[in-house]
């Protein structure tokens, strides 16, 4: 039988953790043949709640779940980790300035990057979910100099899935008819969901919708969906975020489908004018366990302007954390 894969989840006692852990333990993250050993990292005050979740995981008697370790020590949590899902983060609270938020998260993602550098397995794959996801991923990546930079990614798959859902409803087509949906830039309100390269039944999505809908409804609806969920549910997206994290890692490990691509925040190599080193969302394919940025797409002025604005925001966040000495 295959040896268990070590999957570390931070923020395990949180609401995304509660949705995510059961999907992982049931085999949906890595596939139905791959046993997993879960490593849960929490802050000391939340360890007990994580233990409660672990009790429920045991009670599911998942055939693929080889074990659960719970700790408040990052070094232990990432020791031997093959996959790391960095979900725990410091949320923005009332009256908090952006600088305070970045600093509080730097205090989380710097030591986690160091712990990954010190002890993770050679094939470590990191997905940052906790916000601000792109910049948190950048902080962790910069503190893991021995790990190839491309192993650090930020999640924009939820934005992509939201875009698929909106377009599917608009055109009354199943999501399976839609290909090549791209989210560009930052996982924030400036993100750019791109219908000019998305295809529905082999034709560009943009030519099948009104331009006003694309600009004034589709883009803002996708970008502000998180706020709409909070408004309706009284709590932020959790199961959908967990589902997107599962999609991201599954595709990373198992490869993207031929003739399609997905979106992920990955380290820029300078493609599409995105400054090298920023962790920005791109159209990507996964081959042999590695992401590659899809090359050669033409961008019109509309797309160019939107991408540049989101990338500018990412550069500002990077400059802010650099100024705080976090990278
Ligand atoms: P919760 O507040 O329910 O859970 C967060 C958990 O993280 C808490 O249990 C907390 O104790 C733990 N935590 C805090 N600091 C930690 C540390 N240093 N080490 C380990 N654990 C730590 O938040 P939840 O709703 O689960 O959301 C988690 C994060 O995901 C938030 O930052 C949220 O903004 C972000 N999201 C990102 C999305 C994306 O698409 N990238 C979408 C969903 C979500 O909003």
Automatic annotation (TrEMBL):
* Database matches in PROSITE patterns: MDH (PS00068)
Per the database record, which ranges form the Lactate/malate dehydrogenase C-terminal domain? 156-321
Query: What is this enzyme's EC?
Result: 1.1.1.37
Q: Does the keyword Metal-binding apply?
A: no
GO MF annotation terms: L-malate dehydrogenase (NAD+) activity
Q: Which residues form the Lactate/malate dehydrogenase N-terminal domain?
A: 6-146
SUPFAM superfamilies, alphabetized: LDH C-terminal domain-like, NAD(P)-binding Rossmann-fold domains
Give the annotated active site. Answer: 187
Q: Print the keywords alphabetically.
A: NAD, Oxidoreductase, Tricarboxylic acid cycle
Question: Matching CDD domains, A to Z?
Answer: MDH_chloroplast-like
Q: Where does NAD(+) bind?
A: 11-17, 105, 112, 129-131
GO BP of this protein: malate metabolic process; tricarboxylic acid cycle
> What reaction(s) does this enzyme catalyze?
(S)-malate + NAD(+) = oxaloacetate + NADH + H(+)
Could you say which residues bind substrate here? 92, 98, 131, 162
Q: Which domain of life is it from?
A: Bacteria
Task: Identify its protein family.
Answer: Belongs to the LDH/MDH superfamily. MDH type 2 family.
> What is the annotated role of this protein in its UniProt record?
Catalyzes the reversible oxidation of malate to oxaloacetate.
Q: What is this protein called?
A: Malate dehydrogenase
- Species this chain originates from: Actinocatenispora rupis
């Amino acid at each position: 039988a295959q040896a268990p894969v070590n999957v570390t989840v931070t923020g395990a006692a949180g609401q995304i953790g509660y949705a995510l852990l059961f999907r992982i333990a049931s085999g949906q993250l890595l596939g139905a043949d791959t046993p997993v050993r879960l490593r849960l990292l929490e802050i000391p005050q939340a360890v007990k709640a994580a233990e409660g979740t672990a009790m429920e995981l045991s009670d599911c008697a998942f055939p693929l779940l080889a074990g659960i370790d719970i700790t408040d020590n990052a070094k232990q949590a990432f020791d031997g980790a093959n996959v790391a899902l960095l979900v725990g983060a410091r949320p923005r609270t009332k009256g908090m300035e952006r600088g305070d938020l970045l600093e509080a998260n730097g205090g989380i993602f710097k030591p986690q990057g160091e712990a990954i550098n010190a002890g993770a397995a050679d094939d470590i794959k990191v997905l940052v979910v906790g916000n601000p996801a792109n910049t948190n991923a950048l902080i962790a990546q910069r503190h893991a100099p021995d790990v190839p930079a491309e192993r650090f990614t930020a999640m924009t798959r939820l934005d992509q899935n939201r875009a698929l859902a909106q377009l599917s409803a608009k055109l009354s087509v199943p999501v399976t008819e839609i290909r090549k949906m791209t989210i560009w830039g930052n996982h924030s309100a400036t993100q750019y969901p791109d219908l000019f390269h998305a295809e529905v039944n082999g034709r560009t999505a943009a030519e099948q919708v009104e331009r006003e809908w694309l600009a004034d409804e589709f883009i803002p609806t996708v970008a502000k969906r998180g706020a709409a969920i909070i408004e309706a549910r009284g709590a932020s997206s959790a199961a959908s975020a967990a589902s997107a994290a599962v999609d991201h890692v599954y595709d990373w490990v198992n490869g993207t489908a031929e003739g399609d691509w997905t979106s992920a925040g990955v380290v820029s190599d300078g493609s599409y004018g995105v400054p090298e080193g920023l962790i920005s969302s791109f159209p990507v394919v996964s081959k042999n366990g590695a992401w590659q940025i899809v090359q050669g797409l033409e961008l019109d002025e509309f797309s160019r302007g939107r991408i540049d604005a989101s990338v500018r925001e990412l550069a500002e966040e990077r400059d802010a954390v650099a100024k705080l000495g976090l990278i």
